[in-house]
Amino acid sequence: xxxxxxxxxxxxxxxxxxxxxxxxxxxxxxxxxxxxxxxxxxxxxxxxxxxxxxxxxxxxxxxxxxxxxxxxxxxxxxxxxxxxxxxxxxxxxxxxxxxxxxxxxxxxxxxxxxxxxxxxxxxxxxxxxxxxxxxxxxxxxxxxxxxxxxx
Length: 151
Prior knowledge:
By secondary structure, the chain is α+β, with helices and mostly antiparallel strands. It has one domain (2-148): Nuclear Transport Factor 2, Chain: A, CATH 3.10.450. It is 38% helix and 39% strand. It contains four helices and five strands; from the N terminus they run αααβαββββ. It has helices at residues 2-18, 26-45, 48-54, 72-84; strands at 60-63, 88-102, 105-118, 121-136, 139-148. It has a five-stranded mixed beta sheet with strand order 1-5-4-3-2. It starts with a helix and ends with a strand. Residues 4-19 have low confidence and may be disordered.
């Protein structure tokens, strides 16, 4: 928890010293959104090769309604569990997204809609996501996120 708070505090201080967090090029926005979609799709497909490239070992994940936080191993396990239960992604949408870019750190705020199918039964989930992306060695990674469902 301290690590996340320190990261957010450092990002906010850096942003206040360097200018607007909203200043991003269309190319930067497209690049970040492409990686974000790749992470979500890789999880639903249990694409371990993509997940290993995009979700680093120091990942921290918080999900609404879950007491325990997850780390990389648990993220990979939940993806495997979803697929082994017969789960398939039908549709994913992000009806609202805003990005704050702080150099090599981007915070992506979104509303999402996910439709899945398990054993012939479809379900739609909606919620909000706050995601942290960090560019490491020229590659955007997703070392943390928090999702919740609307009340």
